Amino acid sequence: LHGIEERWENMHPKEQADIWMKLKDRMKGNWKELSVLEKKASYYVAFGPHGPRTLPPPGEWKKVVMYTLASVGLTGFFFLTRELGARPAPKTMTPEWQEASNERMRAQAVEPLTGISSEYPTRHGKGYVQS
Predict the structure, then answer these.
(1) CA-CA distances (angstroms) from residue 127 to 11, 30, 104, 113?
(2) Is the pLDDT score of 128 beyond 80?
(3) Quick check: helix, strand or coil at residue 73?
(4) Number of C-beta neighbours around residue 86 at 10 A
(5) In the chain, domain spans
(6) Element holding 41 (H helix, E strand)
(7) Residue 58: phi, psi to the nearest 5?
(8) Distance between CA atoms of 5 and 53, rounded to whole angstroms?
(9) Is residue 130 within 8 Å of residue 93, measured between CB atoms?
(10) What is the rounded CA–CA span in Å between residue 7 and residue 3?
């Protein structure tokens, strides 16, 4: 059990399992009978930085930040390329056209109860002006 912290990662899985089972059997008894070495080994095997608790390699955060910034930059590039290459907005999206649509709806009394033609001030709809 001496130096198990250094040897554990390089041990064969069967050997690791054998050590763990021996320690597990020893831990079932009185803990005061365990040596300090057995207590340290038990703690390391149960909670040490190995397997899923392995610490990330130094500098890994730099890769994460770099890839995140690269993907955000690439997304921004694609967005700007799409926006610059897009067709102009249709004529129906101009404020003048939308105001004219509102006036036409009022003249034709479209949705007289809850829409733009409503006579009730609390139920008055917004109409079509968006931009």
Answers:
(1) 74, 81, 11, 13
(2) no
(3) helix
(4) 8
(5) 4-53, 58-86, 91-123
(6) helix 36-47
(7) -65, 140
(8) 14
(9) yes
(10) 6
Residue type, 40: K
User: Using CA atoms, how far apart are residues 27 and 68, in angstroms rounded to an integer?
Assistant: 46
| E-state strands within the chain | none
pLDDT value of position 45:
87
55 vs 47: CA distance, rounded Å:
13
The single residue listed with the structure tokens 């020893």 is: 26
Per-residue model confidence as pLDDT tens digits over 87-117: 888 998 888 999 999 889 888 988 877 777 7
Tell me the C-alpha distance between 127 and 97, whole Å. Answer: 12
Spatial distance between the Cα atoms of 128 and 101, rounded to a whole number of angstroms: 7
pTM of the model: 0.45
